[in-house]
Amino acid sequence: MAESDGRITGMTPAFAETLGDHSSHSNLSDVFDDLPLPLPASHGDFRCVLKNSGREITGMTVPTGSGTGAAVLVIGQATETAPLYEQVQTVNASNDLVFQFNSSREVYYVSDNVERITGFAADEFISGRLHPLDLVYPEDRPSLERDFRDIFTTHRSIENSEHRIIRKNGDVAYLLKSWYPLFDSDGKFTGIIGLNKDITKEKLLRERLELFRSAFEHSTDAIVITGTDGKIIDVNDAFTRIYGYTRDEAVGNTTSIVKSKHSTPDFYYQMWSSLDKEDRWGGEILNRRKDGVEIPVWLSITPIYMDNKKIGYMGIESDISERKNLEQQIIQTEKLATIGQLAAGIAHEIGTPLNIISGNAEFVLLDLKESDPGYSELETILAQTKRISTLMRQLLDLARPKVLSLQPTDVNGVLADVINFIRIQFNKGNISIRTDFEDGIAKVYGDPALLYQVFLNIVVNSYQAMEKGGSLNVQTSTETTEESRKHIVIRIEDTGEGIHPDNLARIFTPFFTTKAPGKGTGLGLAVTKRIVQEHNGTIDIASNLGNGTTVTIRFNAFEQAKR
Known about the structure:
Elements: H1 13-19, E1 32-33, E2 44-50, E3 56-63, E4 71-77, H2 84-87, E5 96-102, E6 107-110, H3 114-118, H4 122-126, H5 141-154, E7 158-166, E8 172-183, E9 189-198, H6 200-218, E10 222-227, E11 232-235, H7 237-243, H8 247-250, H9 265-278, E12 281-288, E13 294-306, E14 309-319, H10 321-366, H11 375-399, E15 407-409, H12 411-428, E16 431-436, E17 444-446, H13 448-465, E18 470-480, E19 486-494, H14 501-504, H15 524-534, E20 538-543, E21 549-556, H16 558-562
Parallel strand pairs: 16-18
Antiparallel strand pairs: 1-2, 2-3, 3-4, 5-6, 5-9, 7-8, 8-9, 10-11, 10-14, 12-13, 13-14, 15-17, 18-19, 19-21, 20-21
């Protein structure tokens, strides 16, 4: 504290420490060279030199409004990077709300900007009708009151502590307070000065940045930020989850780490041309995970600008694998509907003449012996008509599903019936059968006859894949999901020739078969999958060419299936 002519009337311990050996002087002119006197009666910044040391000092004056021209000086050692008032976050005096209290804790000075910052006039505080603590946000008030009492009793400074106030219009403002005790020239405590920086804009900006950061981190879509050179600056958690790269592995690399063989130079040329012309691009693209698996995504790219200069790009990528699977299921459903219409028409048009052909062939065959001419030809006719009848029945089964007769069903029992039925044939084919059924396994809610058809279709396929012999392993077990739901799992594993990877994706497609002509219609697994899905189950096939095939079927346990 000093009068306008430089006479020192009080100082804080920190100010005395700054002055060092000069703390006994009574006038600022005895302490500093080049200090402009008289001190200004308004906010102002200054630089001067501490005598006998050459240290450059920076500070600012804050008028007290006492009518004598007295001022408060906030002084510290100047630095090459920033003056003191920047270091203590008092960049602009107009943002500092200043309160001065006497030793009786009464306000005797308020800075001119009080009404702009709080909405209340200065005389409301000077008169005592309103206390600065009355403005403090309710949740912040207890701690602030403790600090206020403490500084009056212990005379310790409080610096850079954040709190909220409620303005007269009800808005919330954020202040950064620094409170300092004041002493006269005899060292007697005379009160405190409170410097409160209005940091509302900075706080709201920080909160907004936090909001954007939270949205970035928690988005379910992958987000990648790059420079204009394509190098990755940052990625979110969804990116690491979808592509398998850690953030450290991705940052610093270019986006080519997720590029697949399907993204040609021509494709990228068109994409960047669109970005240059329209400042955005969106489309479907097939990218590649770290493990090499290709994944379809919908990618939208927008440029990032700063000061009207393009500094990078933001890409948002949505995993559309599930959507693509649904599209394939819709296509498959449409195919099945077409097959159903076709099958119904064929059955109607062909059924009657086919019965006539087979009936007449059987009638003629009754009058012939095996040695008679034409006997073997008639047997061929009968065999082929039966084959056509079987194909027509399978088509109708696929196109017109039967009404399910659902009941609690023991899958162990159904599987045992299937194995007993095919056991003799398997023994003839030099194929061993091993079963591992879980005792007391829960039942499934299903149609026993249709489940029998499912298991039989799979077992017959295994038999046909082991022409040179082998082994069949049939296992049942129970799995519990993270949601505490129980699944009944059936695994049927053979040691046959396996399935080529190119064929594995088409294995459930109607009329697709890898068997020799005349040995399969390509409808067995399509019907099998439809029946499993009608029971709310799933079927998966894993196979390596030359190393056998494993079929895994999962059904909900009976209690869950009923709900």
